[in-house]
Write a structure and sequence with these properties.
about 80 residues, mainly alpha, 2 domains
C-alpha cells in the first residue's frame, strides 16, 4: 500500500498530509473491518456467505493464479 501512496504523493509532503494520511487510512480500515465483522455476525448474511464461500474461494484462487502467471510472464520479458 505504501508504494501506491508514494506514486501519488508530491515530492515534498507537507507535515499535515504526512500526519493525516495514516489517520485516514486507520479510520477507513477500522470502519471497513468493523462493518464486515458486524454483517457476518448476523445470521442471514453469514448464511449467504457460507453458501457461496467455495465459489468465492475458487474465484480468489483463480485471480491469484492469473496474477502469478502474469508476474512470471513479465519476468521473462525483462
Amino acid at each position: 500500500m505504501e508504494v501506491f501512496f508514494a506514486a501519488f504523493l508530491p515530492r515534498y509532503v507537507p507535515i499535515s498530509l504526512g500526519i493525516s494520511i495514516p489517520i485516514v487510512c486507520f479510520v477507513i480500515e477500522t470502519g471497513w473491518y468493523s462493518t464486515v465483522a458486524t454483517l457476518l455476525s448476523s445470521a442471514g448474511p453469514r448464511a449467504a456467505y457460507l453458501g457461496f464461500k467455495s465459489q468465492f474461494d475458487r474465484l480468489a484462487g483463480s485471480v491469484m493464479m492469473l496474477l502469478g502467471i502474469k508476474l512470471i510472464a513479465s519476468a521473462h520479458e525483462a
